[in-house]
Amino acid sequence: MPGRQIGNPRAVEAVAGRARLGGTWVFGALFLSLAFQAAPVQAEPVAGPENREPTSPPPPQDAPEAGSTLATPRVKHSFFSQFIDPEDHALDFSAFLAKGGFIPAPIIITEPAVDGGGGVALAFFKANPEHPRQVTRHIIGAFRTGNGSEGLGYFQSGYAFDGRLNYRFGIGHGEVTLDTFPAFAPDGVEYTSQYDYGIVGSALWHFSDDRFSIGPVFDFRKLTSTINTSFLPEDVADDFGMTLQTGALGLGLHFDSRDNAISPTRGVNAYVEGKFNREAFGSDRDYEVYAADLYVFGPVAGPVRYGAKVQIDAIRDDFPFFYAPAVSLRGVQAAEYQGMTAVSTEVETTWQVSPRWALLAFAGYGSADSGDRRIFSDSGDIWAGGVGFRYRLARRLGMDAGADFAWGPGGFIWYLQFGHAWSFGMD
Length: 427
Prior knowledge:
Blueprint: H1 9-20, H2 22-37, H3 94-99, E1 102-109, E2 117-128, E3 131-145, E4 150-160, E5 165-180, E6 189-206, E7 212-227, E8 243-256, E9 267-277, E10 287-301, E11 304-317, E12 341-352, E13 357-369, E14 382-394, E15 399-408, E16 411-418
C-alpha cells in the first residue's frame, strides 16, 4: 500500500506521510466511485402458490449403491465476490483485508506544499476482527512531486507478544523541496533536504490495563540541506551546505481507549513524548523535541458523533531551524506557520447518513510561537475549516475512506483520506 512538512519531524509525517502512506488513502478513494455503481444484488422473488407453475412429479432416482458417496456440488466464487458484503451487498473490503494480501496502489499527493504529486506503493494490511485496534501494516512505496521532491521508503507497524507490544518504524531515502517562512524571508523561501537515510520508530509496552503503554522512541537521520537565497542570518547559516546527522532517543507514555485505530467513533487517544538528540546517540546537534497530543471521540445524539484534537509540539536548544514544528490543520499548508512551539486544535462533527455513508464538517484553530530565538515570527491566530465525506470501505473492520475539502488562510486545499484525517498523528 499511510495524517507536517518533510523538514521537521512532525511535518515529515504530514507531507511524507501522504507520500509514504498516501497509497492506502488512494486505494480506498479509487473504489469510492465504484461504490456509486455497485447496485445491491437482488434475490430472485420466491414464487408463491398463486403463481407457481404446475410441474410434473420428478422422475424417480436410483438409490446410491452401498458404500458410494454423492458428490456435493462446489459453489464457485469469482475473485470479485470477496469485495461484496453478504449482509448489505455493497462494495466492501472486510474479507479481503482480514485475510491479508499485497495491494498495488497509486499514490496521489494533494499537499500544496510540494505542488502535488504521485507514485506507487505496495501495502499489506492484516487486521484481527476480534481485536479491531490490532492492525499490522507493511507499506513500501516511491513518490515524486510537482516541485521535484522524490523518495522511497518502507513503513511497518503491528503488535507482538499477544498484543502487549505495539511497534512501528519507518525507513526512508530521498530529496524533498519545501517552502519555509522564517522571519528573514516572510514571503517564503525554498530549501531542499537530501536524505541519505531517515529511521524513525517506537516500541510501546502495554500495562495490564491495556489502555496504557510506555516505551522508547527513536529518530535517526542523515541529510544535506541547501536553501535558495543569497542572504542567511548568522544564526541559521550552519543549517545549510553541510551534512547534518541527527540521532535521538526518548520516551513515550500513551493512553488509548478508541474502539478502532483507523476510523475511531468513540474513545480517547492521548500521549506525551520527548526525544533527545545527543552526541552520544550520533547527533551533531544537542536539542530536544516534545509532543503532547489528545484525541477524543464520542456520540452526540442519534447518528451524529464528534471528534476533537489538541496537538502541542515544541523544540528547544540548538535545533536546525527547518525542524521547527508547524501548525497542522486541514486547510493550512504544511510548514507555513512554524515556531519553537506550535498548537493545533480541531473539532469535527460527523453525521452517519446510512450504515455506509457519512458527511462531516470540521473547524480548527492553531498558532505558532517563535520563542526566544526569534527565527520565526509569531503566527497569530490561524483559523481553518471545511467539509468532507466518508464511505465505510470495510464494515467488519470499521475502516472508512473519503475526501476532505478545506479552506484556510491560503485558500482551498483538498485531501484524500483513508481512515480518519488524524490517523497519522494518533497511535
